[in-house]
Amino acid sequence: MQRYYTITQLTQEFDITTRTLRFYEAQGLVSPHRRGRQRLYAPGDRTRIKLILRGKRLGFSLNEIKDMIEMYRSAPGEAGQLRLLLDRIAARREELLEKQRDIELTLLELDDVEAGARARISELCADMPSEEV
């Protein structure tokens, strides 16, 4: 395992910009060591970046991700962190299922509107003299 990672190594590994990594630092999500102007990230910072990106893919806000990461460092520790994670997963799942229901209803409505438009076109074409069709 590497002792430190440079900003270039991490941005390339995770396909993120240096601006993103600096933003995470400004938000207190990672805290690199400094060697002059160079930022050096510990393996723990690398792990946190990985968790941040996973959390973002799952739709969690940075504040939610930060809460989960910080809980690991203090009481109730990992067990509390896992309970919080399960609660957040349940809430996110419900939110996505609600959106899915809304999308399904919208698709059904679009089907109805489309069927009505096609039926009306058929009526209009049937009423037209054959040279206008």
UniProtKB/TrEMBL annotation:
The name this protein goes by in its record: MerR family DNA-binding transcriptional regulator
Domain HTH merR-type: 4-71
Keywords from the named record: DNA-binding
Gene Ontology molecular function: any one: DNA binding
Species annotation: Roseibium salinum
Transmembrane recorded as keyword: no
SUPFAM superfamilies: Putative DNA-binding domain
InterPro entries: DNA-bd_dom_put_sf (IPR009061), MerR-type_HTH_dom (IPR000551), MerR_fam (IPR047057)
Stretches that traverse the bilayer: none
Superkingdom, natural source: Bacteria
Family annotation (Pfam families): MerR_1
